[in-house]
Write a structure and sequence with these properties.
The protein is α+β, with helices and mostly antiparallel strands and about 750 residues long. It is built from 24 helices and eleven strands. A hairpin with a 5-residue loop joins strand 8 and strand 9.
Length: about 750
């Protein structure tokens, strides 16, 4: 592979005009496609195989026009102290508001609280239920504006009016966070590379890659039914790996220049060596993202595949456009130094045939000093690292999964105020009612059976209210609304849902009828359980495939095993930190957590997929340099020092950039975005600085030569991908004479 990529790098360097124009043309084509494509919808959402999904499917079939997944809004009214909502002036305002809300073309129905008796026992609070024909992502801005205007108009005579539900839910805007992350990335790149031109290349290529990926998603969104959240994940991951991959190749190119190689040869070798690591690192990310298909939730599968496509684009750009831009950059790619000018005068063959450089006084950097320290005290470093991460992981043992509701919104939002008002007036469970759907098509006495079902559910512990049944026109299906005594995201509500389903199983056999528990709350519970059940198979698939891939890369069994175990340790520690902050409330004020609750159900599997890919990036880039030094004759301890001397600074910079990008999302007002930003930032910190920088060299130092052991039969069976660039030695003698004239000509560019 190294030889092939070497030729790719040289070709891109020589034909830089063609390569650059090709990528610009692809960006333009994707941009035109995105601009002319029809606007994407919210994307269909389904959870195959769950009871809540079967209920929604039955509702779509038996209650046409019901829009089971339609957006809802609860307009909550509260009378001034000492007054009642039944007072004539307040009643008139409410009824006028309901009339105004019903005039919206996207509204399916708006209920009058006085007709539906939606009044609290003390008469101080009332609410109007607004149901829409489309889901919240398809709701037009005009409809949201009409809802907000009607609410504002109702705030007369001292009435307090707030709006809950998902009708006001919009996709969170993360533009500021992205700008902050890119700004910090630019500063870190300038500090790391010491050159504005060198720092600009990773940013430029990452933005081009993300532009092509996101524009392609936008162009295909309507045809492939991609949701609006798909491009957000692709942008986040694509930007992260795009900067990383380009940074590693640019850094290796500068190192090759320091060895006295001509620029085209240096570009080819950078792509042949660091580029090989980029290919395998990219494959691990792609495996992790495509592996989301194991969960069997279509929207997650589409998000993973789309993000994986953006990662693949980032790999191809790093392998081709980076060497092309290096050709344009000339000698501005690295700061001039007396040492560099002297070494540049040497012949490339001398540099290639010379023994591996030793860590002399000229080469002793912070990475070298740290590696030597770890080698001297590997047991101490290993124990501190493992025990520290183990302690951080302890809170994960009490992890409670769920989906956040309006109860975790900031206290100054109208959704949170409406949530609190409904809880005060009607009880906490009123914010998350359950929907019972029955199929009584095969029964002669459908109404009698449904009434028996209703009474049985009313006797379940934790149920405080059961509404009369609503039948469809054919009379073969009915809906019943159930209000629990606990808030939607609590474990108590989850227990109530399971209790109702257990009771429903007995009713099904008794009446020969199907009884399903659904609604947004039940759907969230099923979603969380499905993700939780898929976590172990997903881990087995992703880690297993990556383990096989890393065996091929490192020609070792113990190094990939150590990489996988280190990743699991860092993810558990990160989950522990998330639980401590967002579920227990530790340091919650520091991170803007106003209300604790269950951890977002997508968080564990999302962290596994994203962090695994990034963790393997750092593992591949750092350890391949050690493997390269070891293959070229260095002792195991010296190979560790060499790997850190050349790779520690770059890996550190890449990790700092990723932490900055993810941490920028902690400032978001949306609890889910805040949690994702914190979780990914702390996970990258643990994995890069504790696992890869401390535990990895400590374990390798203890293993010595055994770290690179591979059974002979397996060594013969595995393909030789030559990540270390061993095959490039043979090219020096054959190609150097033919390249001399071209190199001298290109050097003048």
């Amino acid at each position: 592979m190294a030889t092939f990529l070497y030729k790719v790098g040289r070709f891109a360097f020589r034909r830089r005009h063609f390569v650059a124009l090709l990528w610009v043309a692809l960006l333009t084509l994707a941009g035109v496609g995105a601009a002319t494509a029809p606007a994407p919808g919210a994307g269909s959402f389904s959870i195959p195989g769950t009871e809540a999904q079967r209920a929604f499917d039955l509702l779509d079939e038996r209650f046409p026009g019901f829009a089971a997944d339609g957006a809802t809004a609860r307009v909550v009214f509260k009378a001034p102290a000492g007054e009642k909502m039944t007072d004539s002036e307040h009643k008139a305002v409410v009824q006028e508001t309901v009339k105004e809300l019903g005039e919206d073309k996207q509204v399916a129905s708006a209920t009058d609280p006085f007709a539906t008796k939606s009044l609290s026992e003390n008469g101080e609070i009332a609410y109007a239920q607004v149901s829409y024909k489309v889901n919240s992502m398809e709701l037009k801005d005009d409809s949201r504006d009409a809802l907000e205007k009607a609410t504002e108009d109702a705030r007369v005579g001292g009435l307090t009016v707030e709006v809950g539900g998902d009708a006001l839910q919009v996709m969170p805007h993360t533009g500021t966070a992205e700008i902050i992350g890119i700004g910090i990335a630019a500063v870190v790149l300038v500090i790391t590379l010491g050159s504005l031109v060198a720092a600009g290349l990773p940013l430029l290529t990452a933005l081009i890659g993300v532009g092509i990926g996101v524009s392609s998603i936008a162009a295909l969104a309507k045809a492939l039914d991609l949701g609006t959240t798909t491009s957000t994940l692709a942008m986040m991951i694509g930007l992260a790996v795009g900067i990383d991959y380009a940074l590693f190749i640019v850094s290796r190119y500068r190192a090759e220049l320091d060895e006295g190689r001509e620029r085209e040869d240096a570009a080819g070798r950078a792509v042949g060596t660091a580029g090989s690591a980029v290919v395998f690192a990219g494959l691990t990310v792609v495996i992790a993202l495509v592996g989301l298909a194991v969960v069997n939730i279509p929207v997650l599968t589409k998000m993973g595949v789309a993000a994986a496509g953006t990662v693949a684009i980032a790999v191809f750009i790093a392998l081709t456009m980076i060497p092309a831009l290096l050709g344009y950059a000339g000698r501005k790619i690295r700061p001039a130094s007396a040492k560099g000018r002297l070494r540049a005068g040497k012949k490339a063959k001398d540099a290639a045939d010379a023994p591996a450089p030793v860590a002399d006084a000229e080469k002793v950097n912070l990475g070298t000093k740290w590696a030597r320290f770890v080698i001297r005290r590997p047991i101490m470093v290993l124990l501190i690292g493992v025990l520290g991460l183990g302690a951080a992981a302890l809170p994960a043992s009490s992890l409670a999964l769920g989906l956040p509701d309006d109860g975790v919104q900031p206290t100054d939002t109208t959704q949170r105020k409406a949530y609190d008002m409904l809880s005060d007036g009607f009880g906490p469970g009123f914010n998350g009612p359950l929907l019972i759907v029955t199929d009584v098509r095969a029964l002669d006495d459908a109404k009698g059976a449904v009434e028996d079902i209703r009474k049985t559910i009313a006797d379940v512990d934790g149920v405080v209210n059961v509404s009369p049944a609503t039948f469809n026109k054919a009379g073969d299906s009915a809906m019943i609304t159930v209000v629990p005594n606990s808030k939607p995201s609590s474990t108590e509500t989850e227990d109530i849902v399971h209790a109702i389903r257990d009771a429903g199983a007995g009713l099904e056999s008794k009446h020969d009828a199907d009884v399903f528990v659904s609604g947004a709350t039940a759907m969230n519970i099923d979603f969380s359980e499905k993700l939780n059940d898929a976590l172990v198979p997903y881990l087995a698939l992703v880690v297993g495939l990556a383990f096989l891939l890393l065996i091929i890369v490192f020609r070792s069994l113990l190094v990939p095993l150590k990489a996988a175990l280190g990743f699991l340790l860092s993810v558990l520690a990160a989950l522990g930190a998330v639980v401590a902050v967002f579920q227990w409330g530790w340091l919650g004020g520091l991170f803007g957590v106003e209300e604790t609750g269950p951890i977002m159900s997508m968080m564990p599997i999302f962290m596994v997929g994203v962090v695994f890919g990034l963790a393997m990036d750092y593992e591949v880039f750092l350890v391949t340099r050690m493997r390269e030094a070891y293959v070229h004759g260095e002792r195991p301890g010296q190979a560790i020092v060499t790997g850190f001397r050349h790779g520690a600074r770059v890996v550190t910079a890449a990790a700092v950039i990723m932490i900055a990008v993810f941490a920028g999302f902690i400032g978001a007002s949306d609890q889910m975005i805040k949690m994702i930003g914190f979780g990914l930032a702390i996970a990258v910190f643990f994995d890069a600085f504790v696992v890869r920088m401390a535990i990895v060299p400590a374990v390798l130092a203890l293993l010595g030569d055994k770290a690179w052991w591979l059974p002979k039969w397996l060594d013969r069976a595995l393909p030789n991908v030559d990540v270390e660039g061993e095959g490039l030695k043979d090219l020096d003698a054959a190609d150097h004479g033919d390249r001399g004239d071209d190199d001298r000509e290109l050097a003048r560019v």
